Amino acid sequence: MEPPEAGELTPPDRTLMGPGPSEVHPRVRRAMSTPLVGHLDPAFVDLMDEVQELLRYTFRTDNEFTIPVSGTGSAAMESAIANLTEPDDTVLVPDNGYFGDRMASMVRRAGGTVERVSAPWGAPLDPDDVAAACETHDPDVVGFVHAETSTGVLQPDVPALTEIAHDHGALTIADTVTSLGGVELRVDEWGIDAAYSATQKCLSAPPGASPLTLSERAVEKVTSRDAPVRSWYLDLSLLADYWGEERAYHHTAPITNVYALREALRLVAEEGIEARWERHERVAGALRDGVEAMGLGLASESWLPSLNTVALPDGVDDTAVIDHLLSEHGIEVAGGLGDLAGDVLRVGCMGHSARPANVLALVAALGDALA
Ligand code: PLP
C-alpha cells in the first residue's frame, strides 16, 4: 500500500465571529508549542495547581473541586450531569434552546427522569415557571443554561433560580460554556452547585480541556452515591485523586491543552475578570449598534454579548449570506438552530475575537453581503 500524500498544513486565515471556536490569542498558540513534560512531572503538578487557582478566579469561586475535564465542553457537561444524577433522580431542564435538549439526553443516559421547564426559543426562563415546575416535580437537580449559544439568550437573575432550587432541596447545574470569561458569572455568590464550561468560547483557547467546578454540597453527592457513575472516564470521584492531594494516575492529561488553558487564564487574570466582562459588553454593543444601524435587530429577548442572534430580513437566504461572508471576507458566522433555523445569523463576540477591528470588519462585510 502506497503512503497517502498529505501536503503541509496551511489553514486559511479566518476571522472567527461564529458561535465558537473564537480566535486563539498568539500567546496561547505559543504556549502550545512549548515542550511536553510528563503528566505526573513535579513541574506539571505545579502547573495544575496554577490552572486550578486561575480557574477559581475566573469562575469567582472558592470551590476546592475546580478542574479542567479532558475533552470538549460536552465532556465537562456530561461529567456534571452524570455524576450528579443518580438512577431514579428527577432533573429539571429547560426546553428553550438546543443545549437544554442536550442536557435532557445526558440525564436520560445517566438513568434519571427528565422534567422540562418551558420558555420560547429566544426568551429566558421565568423564575415563576421554575418555581411552579419545582412544586410539581420535586426535582433532585435543576439544570439551566446561563448563556444559550443556540438562541443568544442570557439567563438573567441566576440567584432567583438557584434560590428556588435550593428551597426545594435540589442542587443546581449551570451551563456556562458561552459565558465563562466573557459575561458576568459569580458561581459562589449566585449559589451554583456545578458549573461547566469550554475553552473555545470566551477563553479563546482551543477545545480540549474544559472547566468544571463543584460546590461542597455537589462533591458530597458525588462521593456518597449508591451506584457508581456509569462512565469510568468521567467519574469525578476517580478524577479527584488526580486533581486532588494524591495526584494519582487516572488517565493521561492532555498536556498541551492544559498549557493553552493556563496561558488563556493568565490573560484573563492580567485583564481582570470585571474589565473583561466590560470589554465584551462594549465591543458587542458596537456590533449590536452597527447591525441596528443597518435596519436589522437582534432576535433575543435577553441580550447575550458573547453571542448575538441577528434577525435576517424576510426573503434573505441565510446560507448565501454565511457563504458570502466566508468566501469574500474570510469571516465565519453561523446560522440559526432549531426554531430559529433560517431566520437568524449567530454572530459571536468572544474572548480574543471580541475586538473593535473584528466588529468593524463584520459590519462592513454584512452590509456588502446584504447589498
Ligand atoms: N453548551 C453550550 C451552551 C454550548 O454552546 C456548547 C458548544 O457550543 C456545548 C455545551 C458543548 O460544547 P462542545 O461543543 O465543546 O462539546
Note the gap between the termini: 52 Å
Largest sheet, in brief, is: 7 strands, mixed
Helix-strand pattern: EHHEHEHEHEEEHEEEHHHHEHEEEH
Integer-rounded radius of gyration: 21 Å
Number of strand segments: 14
Into which percentage range does the β-strand content fall? Answer: 15-25%
- Please estimate the helix content: 40-55%
- Shape designation: globular
**Poorly predicted runs of 5 or more residues:** none
Give the class from helix and strand content and strand pairing: alpha/beta
Hetero ligands = pyridoxal-5'-phosphate
Number of helices: 12
The averaged pLDDT comes out at 97
Features:
single chain, 371 residues, alpha/beta, binds pyridoxal-5'-phosphate
Report on the architecture of this protein.
By secondary structure, the chain is an alpha/beta fold. Helix content is 41%, strand content 15%. It has twelve helices and 14 strands. The protein has a seven-stranded mixed sheet, with helices on both faces. A three-stranded antiparallel sheet has the order 11-14-13, with helices on one face. α4 links the parallel β3 and β4. α3 crosses α4, α5 packs parallel to α6 and α10 packs parallel to α12. The protein is globular. The chain starts with 14 loop residues before the first strand and ends with a helix. The mean pLDDT is 97. It binds pyridoxal-5'-phosphate. Pyridoxal-5'-phosphate (PLP) binds next to α3.
